[in-house]
Amino acid sequence: MTSLTVEKPPPAEPEAPTRTKNTLAKRLVPWGYLSPTVVLIVLLMVVPIIMVISYSFRDNVIVQENSVFAGFANYTEVLTDPDFLAALKNTFIFITVSMVAHLLLGLGFAMMLNSGMLSGVTKAIFRVVYVLPWLFTIAVIAVIWRLLLDPSGVVNYVLQTLGVISDGVNWLGDPGSALWVVTFVNIWSGYPFFMISLLAGLQGIPGELYEAASVDGANPWQKFWNVTIPQLRPVIISMAVLDLIWTSQQFALIWMMTGGGPLNSTEMLSTFTYKLAFSEYEFATASASAVVVLLLTMILAFFYVRQQRER
């Protein structure tokens, strides 16, 4: 009998290098998608921030060829400038009043639109009316309110007709009223964002919580304080921190309505920094002021990120 010999197949080649290449390629694919955005962020944000920080420690930047190292002299000049301190105070008042008013108006209108006392058509009409200020750009808002608040404008005409005032008031030209007027306009233009966010939060509260509170004998105020507010707390905190950041960076509205005047009564940190750079050409001092604003904004952003992680 003839014996059959079975040939063994050749040993397989190692696949480790191929697997390594495939794994490396898979890891690099997400970075390939992110690379355009990363490049834009570096060019448009990181590089300018580094340049501004470097300018803040030097003198005679941009306007002269050779700048000199100045240390913290620019920061000392900015932080001891009476105009900077006035701008800081105005910014604090502007932010605080705007944020509180945004919250109260937004919550009040959101609760009204979420109640069952209004019909669907009425709610739709009110939604359109309340959201209108949010649809206009800052430039349009500034122009509209400058016309309305003119000494011969509609606001003075209505107040004179009602007998509230006898003569036309220059609301934006009076140092005593200008800050409160621009704050009111900022409140009017910004509350719809609060209203929409809080309305979404209210619609997400389970009705069983209110039913359980009714069974326990809770009145409407107790339901609001012990059910509504705790359920909306994460939304309220997030919106408050975002509003702080956005309002602190408000520039266009102030600049187009008053330009920081009259007599610096509406001067904000943003307009103060802008004037230093592009009116007085003190780019080094303006850079120091911009870094201070950046640090304050980063502190607010830190609290916002931490609050989001806690959620």
Automatic annotation (TrEMBL):
KW Iron-sulfur (keyword) present = no
Output the PROSITE patterns linked to this UniProt entry: ABC_TM1
Membrane topology category: Multi-pass membrane protein
Entry keyword set? Cell membrane, Membrane, Transmembrane, Transmembrane helix, Transport
Keyword ATP-binding attributed: no
- Localization: Cell membrane
**Membrane spanning stretches:** 31-57, 92-113, 125-148, 178-200, 240-263, 283-305
What is any Pfam family matched here? Answer: BPD_transp_1
Q: Where is the ABC transmembrane type-1 domain?
A: 88-304
For this chain, the family text in UniProt reads: Belongs to the binding-protein-dependent transport system permease family.
Q: Which PANTHER family match?
A: BLL4140 PROTEIN (PTHR43227), DIACETYLCHITOBIOSE UPTAKE SYSTEM PERMEASE PROTEIN DASB (PTHR43227:SF8)
Tell me what this protein is called: Sugar ABC transporter permease
